[in-house]
Structure formats: C-alpha cells, structure tokens
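To illustrate the input format used throughout this study, we show a single complete record. The first block contains the structure-token representation of the backbone; no residue identities are included at this stage. The design step must infer an amino acid for every position from geometry alone.
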C-alpha cells in the first residue's frame, strides 16, 4: 500500500500515494477555489436586500438573513459544489483505497 507524505511533514496518510509538488499545488488551488465558493454561499445565506421595504411596508430589517432568496436551491448548490470539489481533489490525490 502506498502512502502520501505531506511536504514539510513526516505524517503518512495510509491509502494515498506521494504527490508531486505540482499535484500539491493543484490541490491547494482547488481548495482555495472551494473556500471562495463557500464564502459566496455564506453571502447568499446572509443576504438582506437594501433597496426594498420589508413586509407590509416595514423596514428591511424585518427580513431574516437570506429570506428573500430560495435557500433550498442555495443549499442544493452548496452541496453540489462541495461534492464537485471533493471529486476533483480525489481525482488529483488518486487514493488507493475505497
């Protein structure tokens, strides 16, 4: 069974091959993109419109964060993005086990 050795670290992760510097850079780039997507999803979940009145002419503060957006679809998108990033990271790492 091969093991992946993290650069500058002696920790061995069973079931992973050793990655090249380029592959580590690709994984880190993917993780940075995933973090950016996560920040975007958090922004969508917290969104409160600034240019409209609340219910029955009230103040915009009457809206709960994210209430004006379809949070069901935002959650589906978040899940699909997470799944996609996990898949491409796995494609780079090529684990040798299930």
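Output of the design step:
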């Amino acid at each position: 069974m091969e093991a992946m050795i993290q650069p500058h670290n002696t920790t061995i992760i069973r079931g992973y091959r050793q990655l090249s510097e380029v592959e580590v850079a690709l994984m880190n780039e993917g993780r940075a993109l995933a973090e950016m997507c996560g920040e975007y999803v958090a922004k969508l979940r917290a969104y409160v419109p600034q240019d409209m009145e609340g219910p029955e002419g009230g103040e915009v503060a009457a809206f709960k964060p994210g209430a004006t957006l379809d949070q069901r679809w935002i959650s589906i998108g978040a899940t699909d993005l997470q799944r996609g990033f996990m898949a491409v990271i796995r494609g780079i790492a090529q684990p040798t086990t299930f």
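Structural context for interpreting the output: The chain has two helices and two strands. The longest strand covers residues 3-5.
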